[in-house]
Design goal:
Elements (H helix, E strand, L loop, with lengths): L11 E5 L7 H12 L4 E4 L14 H13 L3 E6 L6 H4 L5 H6 L3 E4 L4 H11 L3 E3 L3 H5 L6 H5 L10 E3 L7 E4 L2 E10 H6 L13 E7 L3 H13 L2 H4 L2 E8 L12 H9 L6 E3 L12 E3 L2 E5 L4 E4 L5
């Protein structure tokens, strides 16, 4: 895997919106967070565009992305929010340009499609973490989530234990591999495309928001039938926010769904990780070497920058 260069005080970062439209007042609330880290900010030319449910046309969003990748003065690209739309531009991304200009890329949710495509096409490690307009702007953006941005300034191993949140063992064991994955619905949407998620020999992270248990069931079933669960060396179940079934509607619990798909796998599976649409949001470098242990109830990840 290819690690991007770490940030230094005084570096310039780019912020773009490759998916759904943003509210500029929320982005403006987040900018001081980056300035307090000693960073300068450059916004994408089309960042405040609205094209229906997209932040500008595909051409505008792609142009902003390519501009930030190509500009040698931009040391990191932060995606302002998720929503919907990154899958629409994946086939037109200049992956050679990324390989020639590897740099930090940070976001999650709909950005999962970009994480997957970029990692598999270029080998670049990217970061699954909270975004400016959708998370940092919130009043309850927390200290741990903020501290995890420091991993961008120096190479540092990350360790997640029950000191952060209780972890539930669904299947026992220890495993190692490249950390891949992200938002479950986006991962499923890669199946059958040129950017289909590769889980062979890898640790698979899954998280989502707003999906009832039957929808999570359907998506896990699709991953199972595609062989993605059995190919993984371990599974990390992140946060599944707002996943409660409709009241008075018969439903399995999420825990029952997870047990059905994970309990008989030949690999360790732990749930309860605060990774996803939640606070704290434990940011992780996707593509980095990692180890998962049900014995220690821990996830250890190598540094994502050099």
């Amino acid at each position: 895997m290819m690690k991007p260069q770490h940030l230094k005080t005084g570096d310039t970062i780019g912020i773009i919106a490759p998916a759904s439209p943003i509210r500029m007042e929320r982005l403006n609330r987040a900018i001081p967070f980056f300035k307090n880290m000693g960073l300068n900010i450059k916004l994408g030319r089309h960042i405040n565009q609205v094209h229906g449910y997209l932040a500008g046309t595909d051409e505008q969003r792609l142009a902003d992305f390519h501009y930030m990748v190509a500009d040698p003065n931009i040391k990191a690209i932060f995606f302002a929010r998720g929503g919907y739309g990154t899958g629409r531009i994946a086939d037109d991304i200049d992956y050679h340009l990324i390989r020639q200009n590897p740099k930090i890329m940070w976001g999650y949710s709909d950005i999962t499609y970009l994480h997957t495509a970029i990692r598999q096409e270029t080998g670049l490690i990217t970061f699954h973490g909270p975004m400016p307009a959708s998370d940092i702007a919130d009043d309850d953006f927390d200290q741990l989530s903020a501290q995890l941005f420091q991993q961008l300034f120096r190479p540092a191993k990350l360790t997640y234990t029950e000191a952060i949140s209780p972890l539930n063992e669904i299947n026992s064991g220890e495993a190692a591999g490249e950390l891949v994955g992200g938002n479950l619905s986006l991962l499923v949407s890669t199946l059958g495309t040129d950017y289909e998620l590769d889980t062979n020999g890898k640790l698979l992270l899954l998280e989502d928001i707003g999906e009832e248990p039957y929808r999570v069931d359907a998506m896990l079933n699709q991953l199972k039938l595609a062989g993605k669960l059995h190919e993984a060396t371990g599974i990390i179940v992140g946060d599944f926010a707002k996943a409660e079934p409709i009241k008075e509607k018969p439903s399995l619990t999420l825990e029952q769904v997870f047990h059905h798909y994970f309990a008989d796998l030949p690999c360790p599976v732990l749930s309860g990780f605060k990774i996803g649409h939640c606070f704290p949001h434990f940011c992780v470098p996707l593509g980095a070497a990692a180890e998962l242990s049900s014995v220690n109830k821990s996830l250890t990840i190598e540094a994502g920058v050099k």
